[in-house]
Design brief:
It is an enzyme of class 6 (ligase). By secondary structure, the protein is of the alpha+beta class. The chain is about 30% helix and about 25% strand. Among the domains are: about 100 residues, 3-Layer(aba) Sandwich (Rossmann fold), CATH 3.40.50; about 70 residues, ATP-grasp fold, A domain (Dna Ligase, domain 1), CATH 3.30.1490. It has a five-stranded parallel sheet with strand order 3-2-1-4-5, sandwiched between helices. Strands 12-13-16-20-17 form a five-stranded antiparallel sheet.
Length: about 425
Amino acid sequence: MNILLLGSGGREHAFAWKIVQSPKCTQLFVAPGNAGTAAIATNLSIGVSDFDKIKSAILNHQIDLVVVGPEEPLVKGLVDYLASEESTRSIPVVGPSKLGATLEGSKDFSKRFMQRHQIPTAAYETFDANQLEQGLAYLEKQSLPIVLKADGLAAGKGVLICQTLEEAKDSLKEMLLDQKFGEASAKVVVEEFLTGIELSVFVATDGKSYKILPEAKDYKRIGEGDTGLNTGGMGAVSPVIFADKDFMDKVEEQIVRPTVAGLAAEDIPYKGFLFIGLMNKNGDPYVIEYNVRMGDPETEAVLPRIESDFVDLLWAIATENLKDYELEISPDYATTVVMVSGGYPGSYQKGFVISLPSDEENTTIFHAGTGRNETGDLTNQGGRVLAITGRGKDLRESLQRTFSTVEKISWKDHYYRKDIGQDILKLIK
């Protein structure tokens, strides 16, 4: 079949890499893609939220399956748009409806959904600018630290962990009155701070059935030892040692099953991926957030562990045949280290030529913010530039392969964290 994949990051390169391995894929088009996807597929110069051009591409290239990578077009209603157009309504799409995507598009919506379906999560209240005084009074009664979340999409930057009451009050004012995160913080969720170990659980669902994909742990902060500013993600490890069978059984029983059942009960169309950010608190799972797509860079560690045909999985999701799909997962480890432009997540310079090694055994280099200059050289064009994933029989072997490749890659001012996976290695010891 001809497949159209939307997105331009490391997640989408990982999707493309997995899709083209399937004999079911005749041609793969990626819009807009990056330098990595250009090497294995046909890039189309179309923005992920340009719905009319996406529809034209589907018709022009006789697309049989659409796969949506990032959250933005989902939250804006791409799936509903394609379903409403006579020329595209019969084309299967991997991605939830606009209402389903509100699980990520609105923190308040997702928290209320969890409450309705008795899904364990942190205690919270939501406030808008007209409720600022109530919000400040609420903060005075809470224990510290306290979490403030912009209700809407804020490119991964809308979450603040405040250590003092003064900081929390100032931040709430900045978010509601000064629009610190723009429209995203028109409402703010004030949430109990959960202690424990974070992990990401990924679920494929066709709205009726579900399959739990490999779990992962990601590393969000720019500095080693989880210090400094939050980023889109600096690395990931899969599997996760503290997500044993007992814990994952609780996740399925208390979170995954009621989430999928809740979507069905509320008649919310959902055919796609669900990323559940979790806290393992003394062996019990609590939902931190829902995302309505695969994570990045977790995808680059999760997909290499899926051994069954990936296109079959995508097709089963989009055509509501997931119950018949046999998911096969490798027991091997996959570890991902993200290489970023110097200065990220603040300002950084683009256009530096990247030096890559030749193919490395059991290691894959996924492109994110990359492009080609006028002479055809590979250059950095974004903050997160490359995601390097090594595979091995155990965590130590996969990390050695990952870092061995990372050390052979260079461009001016590049940066990466050298401590990815080291905390889990200590747990294994």
